[in-house]
Design a protein that fits this description.
The chain is mainly alpha-helical and 178 residues long. Helix content is 58%, strand content 0%. The longest helix has 32 residues.
């Protein structure tokens, strides 16, 4: 498999620039970063495709191209287009509401930033505690779902239809032949 080093370098630069742009607070830069990541993904699929060959038709002689990377590239293009349209709608709405496309900090972000080291260690210590219970609902009384049985409610009569073939088969299995 002969892959061009130029394509690999361009793909790496696009991935790096896309990740760097997505880390910004401006939604426009996030959109640009996402578009760069989409193009880098398409280049990755192009590199993975390998040596080009003939179209993969039935009965074709000689080396043929792998159709899977081509289908994945088309899918990546469609997904990139859809998410880009969604981000453009978010940017437009953000500009309408606040005349800016930056993401602002809310109260929770500010509280997390101002948390002291002692509070951080306290939260880390709580996460290290291991319990034997696999769920939060350990007891029968506190469980969110309770399985009810007919024996718990004798006033309820079971009037569900029963298949007679299943009944005769079940009774045959229970009574061995003598």
């Amino acid at each position: 498999m002969d892959v061009s080093l130029t394509l690999i370098i361009i793909m790496a630069v696009l991935f790096a620039a896309g990740v760097y742009a997505m880390l910004e607070r401006s939604l426009t830069r996030v959109l640009i970063g996402f578009l760069l990541l989409g193009n880098a993904t398409n280049l990755l699929l192009l590199v993975v495709m390998g040596v080009p060959g003939k179209a993969p038709f039935y009965g074709e002689e000689g080396p043929v191209s792998d159709p899977l990377p081509q289908a994945l590239t088309l899918t990546a293009i469609v997904i990139t287009f859809a998410v880009s349209a969604f981000l453009l709608a978010l940017i437009y709405r953000s500009w309408q509401l606040g005349q800016a496309d930056t993401v602002e900090d809310d109260e929770v972000d500010i509280a997390l930033r101002e948390r002291s080291d002692a509070e951080e260690e306290l939260f880390d210590d709580e996460s290290d505690a291991s319990d034997d219970a696999t769920t939060d609902f350990v007891g029968i009384v506190t469980a969110p779902i309770r399985v009810l049985h007919a024996r718990d409610y004798p006033s309820i009569q079971d009037d569900a239809p029963v298949d007679t073939a299943d009944q005769s088969r079940a009774s045959d299995e229970r009574e061995p032949n003598a």
